[in-house]
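Q: Two folds, back to back.
A: First:
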Amino acid sequence: MLQSYYTSAVRTYNSSTEVVSKAIWAAFYLSVSTADQPQHENCPVGKTQNSNESLHSVIWAKCPKHTFSGLQRIKIGVTVAVGEYNMGSLGSHFFFPAVGCALTTATTSLGQKRDKRRIYKAEIAHQAPAKKRIEVRKRAQQRAQQAATRAEGGPSYVSGGF
């Protein structure tokens, strides 16, 4: 498991050895973290969704869990989702000709627009004001959860507590 975190850190932050080192140490401290001794001070702020969860959200958008999908549709949906996840909306353009779907200039144009919109939203989300809003919201949720726990008379479940 640590190997995948290390690989991800190297691939994500390859422009700076200092940043890679910090990300690797953050992964290490997270792996040795316990409920009694949390070690989250080195975790990057706002990096809560791992890449598998992100890929899964793209797959579920193609093949929703709440509706039945046959095996063929799931195979196609996963293939297109992986292509889009790795290469953007235009990634599906490699798949469509293989299954006999014609590509038009409108399809290419729409894919480019979707990619630009996705990149713009990601850039906005990584700016300081957006990160600040996320942090404020996260703290408010934590305070609300703590207040609810206190109101109930303490936690109903503690890891290793039973």
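A: Second:
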Amino acid sequence: MAQIARTLMAEQWLQGVQLGRQEGVYDGVQWSMESSLHDQRQGIGLYHLTLTLRQGNREERFTSLRLRRSAQVETR
């Protein structure tokens, strides 16, 4: 599950930050990601990402803090 988490976080980050909740299925694993702006200074945003993976009765949660220029952010 950790490899799936790394893949999903990287894919979502490369596509651009989308604030709010996103959901999907990847390789038979249900996922949901919450993205929020934690802090912003001088055009740079600190984002908190929480990814939850579910497969059967197993659930794992991964979190990350990432920096990105604010112009690269999309809101839903």
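Q: And?
A: The chain has one domain: 2-75.
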